[in-house]
Amino acid sequence: METHQAFAETIKIFKISLAEISRKTDISPATLSRFKNGHQEIGANNLQKVLKVIPPYAREYFYTLWCRNECAAA
User: Fold this and answer.
1) I want to staple 53 with a disulfide (CB 3.0 to 4.6 A). Which of 9, 20, 24, 62 is the partner?
2) Which residues of 50-74 are buried (b: 16+ CB within 10 A; e: fewer)?
3) pLDDT in tens, 3-39
């Protein structure tokens, strides 16, 4: 699963708003929305910021989804 797909699924399942993430990370909601929809990358540093502010159980879910694709390719 692509990074943006894992992000979109995670925030949907756990009902995490882009506005909430934006307030906590100083990344614009528009940027987060474009990333969620696969239209823009946010870079490793911003992804780390995002993952730090979501709840641990949501972060673990994200990594599980993302790693299915990324870890298998390694």
Assistant:
1) 24
2) bbebbeeebbebbeebbeeeeeeee
3) 999 999 999 999 999 999 999 999 999 999 999 999 9
Query: What is the phi/psi pair of residue 52, to 5°?
Result: -70, -25
Residue 64 φ then ψ, to 5° = -60, -45
* Rounded distance between C-alpha atoms, residue 49 and residue 31, angstroms: 13
Q: Nearest-5° angle of CA 31, CA 34, CA 37?
A: 150
pLDDT digits (tens, 9 = 90+) for 47-59: 999 999 999 999 9
Contact present, 1 and 71 (Cβ < 8 Å): no
